[in-house]
Automatic annotation (TrEMBL):
Entry annotated with the keyword Transport: no
NCBIfam families per UniProt: IS21_help_AAA
CDD domains the record matches: AAA
Family classification: Belongs to the IS21/IS1162 putative ATP-binding protein family.
Keyword entries, A-Z: ATP-binding, Nucleotide-binding
This protein's record includes keyword ATP-binding: yes
TM spans (from-to): none
Name by which UniProt lists this protein: IS21-like element helper ATPase IstB
Residue ranges constituting the AAA+ ATPase domain according to the UniProt record: 96-229
One Pfam family per UniProt: IstB_IS21
Originating species: Maribacter chungangensis
Amino acid sequence: MNTQTLEQMKQLRLYGMIRAFNTSLSSQSIDYTNDELIAYLMQSEWDDRQNRKIERLTKAARFRYSAVMENIDYDPMRNIDKNQIHRFTTCDFIKQKENILITGSTGAGKSYMASAIGHQACSLGYKVMYFNTVKLFTMLKTSKADGSYIKQINKLEKQDLLILDDFGLKGLDSINRHSFMEIIEDRHGKKSTIIASQLPVEAWHEIIGEQTIADAILDRLVHTAHRMDVKGESMRKKLKNKQ
């Protein structure tokens, strides 16, 4: 009967239950009541499905770093508000459709923080995508040529959190400017965006170009944004010196 039960669980793809049931069969020291066994099996299946969901979301996000909130360095020289970071762990900013703008010099840890927040969002079940901004715009230009542009834009729009890293390394040409405007317009008031940049927000206007469009983009981005300006020496240099 146990073999038949396990086979039925397998056909129903109840992988968490299978592992839990096998454990209960092999354990002679635990004597479950019927209610306890059902609760144990259900909890095991729930946990298994949640873990697999998080794995799928994390894989789909394509993060640059395998980052966690607990490993963020709060050295006083870095000008990071620990309370602000802790508030981000709840991802309430996603529920409120708010943005996060992270600025700072090269190696300051902007990308790591953005990725850590993204990983946290995945762990809470949110859909996230991470992009190097230059590569994103290159991909969108290519999609215009092969006819998949609308599909790509729609995919970006559906993400609960979109992370755009290394923004401002190159000025935007007309095509990229309009793509950027479309992305931000689609997400404004509906979804959250994190942008990490070496340049202060005040310099983004020049990077975007064309005053009318730049004003429209920044108005939508900055109005509902939490801002962090990371200071201190390069984290890469700091880690290298410790080795």
